[in-house]
Prohibitin family protein
Amino acid sequence: MKFNFKTSYIVIAVVVLIVLLLFGGRMFLIIEAGERGVVFRPYTTGLDKEHVYGEGFHIIAPWNEMYIYNVREQQREETMDVLDKNGLSINTDITVRFNPIYDKIGYLHEQFGVNYINVLVVPEVRSAVRQVAGRYTAEEIYSTKRAEVEQTIKDETRKVLEENHINMRALLIRSINLPEQIKGAIESKLKQEQEALAYEFRLQREESEAERRRIEAEGIANYNRIINASLTKAILQQRGIEATIQLAESPNSKVVIIGSGDEGLPLILGNN
């Protein structure tokens, strides 16, 4: 039988077409913006942890598997009950924002798989919240040390997640809910503490004002003692004579009687 090149080309084209139809979806992949991929080669090297595929068009062998991860910042909200230092139940609402570390997708896939949020992120956040809450009383968590509690939860959660190839962007305590009876008792105590602080402030202010007045009075008394010690009889007479001369020279009409006043000073009558 004579070999026909044309027929061979047709056969090859048909085979290629069949392969494309059957395996094209596995061979040709587009990784969207905000995504990364890792390849698993079951018949050769297994999971390629070091090579992370970026955005764009990619071709892989049909027997290999591409696992695509969303590396954008993601958010999970959790509502949970925790126990404080004294065993009191507290309801908290937590929000955590995170994203996988781009170049560690392969290691994340090897350890936790594509369901890493439910396998890793959520359990670690819950564990950190419970552990930290157990170190404080309900009053501290609710009011006096809330910022410290929130920061401690952030630090401990971030440390664990980063060790497992997750970048934690933020962790927020949206609300802390206590039993109404406990909440009312705490708020009443805080109100009394604020009133006591205000009263103490008023006392300190009044004590400061009293001290200021005492110092002012001592200053005036010292001034008067100095003046009295320096005012001799001769000086007073001299001042009286000077004042009499100034009044006598003024344009206002008056009557001046020499030697009729106290201590022999002139007596001045009339001021018109």
Q: What stands out?
A: The CA atoms of residues 99 and 263 lie 101 Å apart. DSSP finds seven helices and ten strands in the chain.
